[in-house]
Amino acid sequence: MVCAGRDLRIDIRSDFSDVDALRRTQRLVSYTCDVRPTPEEERALHAFVDGGGRWLALHSTNALFDVDPVRVVTGHERFFGTVGSKFLSHPPICDFGVRVARNSVAEQLMHGVPDFTTSDELYLLEEAPGLEILLEVDAPAVAGAAAPGAPIAYLHNIGSGQVLYCSLGHAGSPTHPHGTHRCSWVAPEFGLILDRAKNWLIEGVPSGTEPAAAARNTTEASI
Q1: CA distance 206 to 106
Q2: Whether this model's pTM surpasses 0.90
Q3: For residue 177, with 0-12 CB atoms within 10 Å meaning exposed, 13-18 middle and 19 or more buried, which class applies?
């Protein structure tokens, strides 16, 4: 696959167990739920970002929980510290507003993304300090939801690398307890957000910004 002058080797995994692949890769995309890394995997993920890797973490990547009864797990602090947040809870799927945060990093990286309303799971997060907020809640729809200004997407800087996390993107199959939902996946604005995130992931520059001329490069990405 060739994108923006780079050859991308895509390697797909269902968890983080291949730490050797993490040591080789330069880019990582995760769309997971309750995938619990071992201590070795947590160290490998942190070292990947700290060493200059870029990790695009979507939706429930930061959600580790037991069921029956539902409760957020304890531990995995290095993992949550690397992602930059820990999922705590969410109200039922509801409509809420999303806006680009009012700062220069957000305005450059999410350039052209309008304020919009979506129907999705509105995550309550325990946040790491020092996040650069990219998208935030504009108007929650239900009591107990995240307050206006709470982060929906952010950059988390670790060493020479970064994590870009976005909490949007729930999807439920017909066998899901709450039925079939496509949520933000049907919103064109979410497509714009993912396009901007893709540009950041590959080039590390805001959408619409010309990258410096460089020799043809090969990047390995794990998903």
Answers
A1: 9
A2: no
A3: exposed
